[in-house]
């Protein structure tokens, strides 16, 4: 049975939200990061909350639609994306600061695209400042009464996730 979300009086199918997320991620990667060979693998086989050698960016949604947008990406792909975004070689990136900033901005761009989905339906949505976490091993647990849309993407041997968690769904 297809999952749907009711937010601010509007009902949206999970598949429609996933389609918007796929289009937004592919567009952001192609136009801002200059990487166009990513493949979406929706739907996700099994839930993922534990990450190894990864970076997670998250942006909160507030207003008529509350929740969180996230991107969870392996460090190596995050560094490659950062270098491409900044017009640098990977070995020119010093430390994690630029990578964290780039992943925060990537998540912010995706959150802006998600905001447009709800704004087009007359909802007022505001975005938080991006938060970024990284590490050798960590878990991301969203404490929520709602449901999530999780879209996996592959680039070569790297898999990353784009997520949308909505409250009250």
Automatic annotation (TrEMBL):
Keywords: Chemotaxis. The keyword Kinase does not apply. InterPro entries: CheC-like_sf (IPR028976), CheX-like (IPR038756), CheX-like_dom (IPR028051). GO terms for biological process: chemotaxis. Residues 55-153 form the Chemotaxis phosphatase CheX-like domain. PANTHER family: CHEY-P PHOSPHATASE CHEX. This is Protein phosphoaspartate phosphatase CheX associated with MCPs of class 40H. It comes from Geobacter metallireducens (strain ATCC 53774 / DSM 7210 / GS-15). The gene is cheX40H.
């Amino acid at each position: 049975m297809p999952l749907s979300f009711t937010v601010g009086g509007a009902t949206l199918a999970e598949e429609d939200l996933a389609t918007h997320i796929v289009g937004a991620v592919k567009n952001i990667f192609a136009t801002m990061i200059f990487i166009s060979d990513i493949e979406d693998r929706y739907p996700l086989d099994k839930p993922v909350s534990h990450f190894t050698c990864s970076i997670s960016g998250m942006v909160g949604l507030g207003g008529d639609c509350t929740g969180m947008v996230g991107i969870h990406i392996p460090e190596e792909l995050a560094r490659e994306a950062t270098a491409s975004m900044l017009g640098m070689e990977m070995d020119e990136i010093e430390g994690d600061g630029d990578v964290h900033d780039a992943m925060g901005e990537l998540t912010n761009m995706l959150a802006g695209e998600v905001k447009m989905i709800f704004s087009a339906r007359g909802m007022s949505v505001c975005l938080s400042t991006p938060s970024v976490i990284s590490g050798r091993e960590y878990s991301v647990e969203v404490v929520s009464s709602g449901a999530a849309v999780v879209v996996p993407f592959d680039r070569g041997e790297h898999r990353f996730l784009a997520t949308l968690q909505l409250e009250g769904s």
